[in-house]
Target: Heptaprenyl diphosphate synthase component 2
Amino acid sequence: MIFDFFSEIRNELSVVEEELIKAVRSSDPLLTETATHLIKAGGKRLRPAFCLLGGKFANFELNRIVPLAVALELIHMATLVHDDVVDASLTRRGQPTVKAQLGNRISTHIGDYLLGKSLILISLYDDPLIPRVLAETSVKMSEGEILQIATTYDLDQNIKDYFYRINRKTALLISASCQLGAVACGAPRQLHQTLRRFGHYIGMAFQITDDILDMTAEQTKLGKPVGGDLRQGIITLPAIYALRKGSVRNRLQEIISKTDKSDQEIHEAIDLIIGCGGIDYADAISDKYIAKAKKELAGLPDVPVKKTMQIIAEFIGIRSF
Amino acid sequence: MIFDFFSEIRNELSVVEEELIKAVRSSDPLLTETATHLIKAGGKRLRPAFCLLGGKFANFELNRIVPLAVALELIHMATLVHDDVVDASLTRRGQPTVKAQLGNRISTHIGDYLLGKSLILISLYDDPLIPRVLAETSVKMSEGEILQIATTYDLDQNIKDYFYRINRKTALLISASCQLGAVACGAPRQLHQTLRRFGHYIGMAFQITDDILDMTAEQTKLGKPVGGDLRQGIITLPAIYALRKGSVRNRLQEIISKTDKSDQEIHEAIDLIIGCGGIDYADAISDKYIAKAKKELAGLPDVPVKKTMQIIAEFIGIRSF
Model:
């Protein structure tokens, strides 16, 4: 069964898609081709969708909101492309990994190019709140990335560190998308602040669920090997919880600390985490964020897309991919 | 003999220096430390200086111009940090180069962080021209970087390709610095457009001279081995000229095409380029740009810093480091 969460904004999303293609055009045909390829490779377009939905709570105007929706996706894409940059030390047995072969330098500059294109779109807006929120967001997103690198293999990090990190990594841009879509359509302060908080809670739940799925999803749905975070020493909420449990702590530490883990060790670590309740714990935290998101929704005007927002909030915590 | 080109704006430049340090502060102490270290490592602060000088042609106001001057240096620093990102293939004899050891991922995200901080400062300005010019500039700078990678080892590129590339790589941001300093201080359109053109010509001459010095400077002054561009397959103006000369073309092609060149081969290539007039040719082109810059200066009001601008124009073409 397929349910289209964005059926109410399907037409608007296809306009965003067309404008995304137009936005990355360059005078250099090769660059246009590479950037277009990146866009056509797909993505959930979650940020443009939240932006459009946010706008539907205010005086929705397609022409006003589309450049912003496109800019948000470009910022998101730029961070994905920059995440592809790897260290020389990540070469395996002397051979660069597939990602490294694509070219760190190209990834860096294409990410900058996409970011630059987003700045052009953002500079079209007169309301200074839009560039200001996005500038603050982009600084914090970089801080989050650097923090994630710095806390890799840090087995002593606590839950607060984790929340701080996933807010920067994911929630802030989703939050900005919900808020600024409304700002672009002339929403009063109280409305766009409520949407900002809604987006924050949804974004937190989204990333926690992502981190759970990294351990529990079927590999075919995930599209990558299970346990990728543990493999790279990225300690997420279920692992932080489990590492506090005396019964599993020592063995878990031992496995996670290894820089080269076997598939069997990864599965053992996941079983230890599940066994001591790490996944249930993370699920419960995600549910709390969803409850908070729904509470914010209650304060929003009864426009048709409000129902869509409610369904999205429900789905984020129960999705299996 | 030391001549301080920026003596007239020395106080203003120290304010910029203080604000640069403040601008990169993060809630993460390690990030603050790394970014502060990058700033304290120095740099000519050419872009802030041009920005301040541009402002002196209008209603100079320190508070109005400093955030922009800081933002311009942060953009420049971000591009330098991103230029440090290397490909896995650049490991030498299986060992990553020094740059690669510093961490491609950290370089990418620190560059993004500096860029984000510049966006915060830029978002303070009400005049939409400032974010718009800088957004266009940053897109074109990324295009220039990608083009430089794409044209590496391309022995058939022509002079037009080279100008296109160095405009994006260097001239555009210097041009924007001259123009926007004046814009931030309320300059009328004609004035900031003249400064924009002046900056373009100066920027082009600056990069051509840089490319000449890469072949002719003493290694101690250059701070890196002579012939670095040729070594990496970056074809600059003197080489493009020489590659058209039948007498040296074949041998020059042979050397430049090699991915692993000996010091002796680099020196032979440089001697071939000098011998057939490649350096003189590039010098003459640089002089033409300087003449154009001076012509633009003539149209500017007679403020005290005009003399400084003239001296800078003279110096750019004759500097030896």
